[in-house]
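WARN no homologs supplied; continuing
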Amino acid sequence: MDIRLLVICAVVSGADGWEAIEEFGKAKLQWRRQFVPFRNGVPSHDCIASVISWLSVKGFQACSASWTEALTEATGGQVIAVDGKTVSGSRDRARGRAVLHMVSAWGDTNRVVLGQEATAEKSNELTAIPKLLALLELTGCIVTLDAMGCQRELAAQLVNQGAEYVLGLKGNQRALHEAVKDFFAVAQADEFASIDHDFYEEVDKDHGRLEIRRYWITEALQTLPNTEQWMGLTQHRPGRAPLLDRRH
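OK structure emitted
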């Protein structure tokens, strides 16, 4: 327990290696003794590395996610943004280490990362996202995913976990993407006559430019192909997922 607490505190504080963790331990020993005794003082960096190497990565990740969720406010309707990022400086050619990609779940209400899953390649995000979602309590939440996550299997998983979803739609779902583009083009040309919809506009002035964002939202799905393949797309609750067109 002493070593695990030491490693967590050190890494959160910016330590990036076993020696740095040991140095942090010596510098902050009295502070940490408020929480655990450290009767034998600060272990060596070799001892720290040895103990951590015996831990189950998946088990530690599950405990970390559970602990994070316990600290956050349980908020119905919280938006959870799932996105993949490349970790800067993670490539180590000398040791043959490829660049590291991480898929993270960001809780917008509590402004905290709820969980992460590593992937060997950016293209492998699709295998990491379901594992990450499975770790989280998503009941009543709205989960957003970019176009890579726009997959029928992920939509079904989110609905089965009690969540609603907002998926970015692009060319990787070609038939549906073209149908949605055509729908909004015709609807806007006809000023949405006889189509039940909502409209929202926001104006921002930042970095020396004026940005106007306009959103059209509708649940009129009649002209789209194979909507029954997307679980929750036409249901009211749970998993209600209306069409949204966003223009700058």
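Residues 1-55 form one domain.
OK
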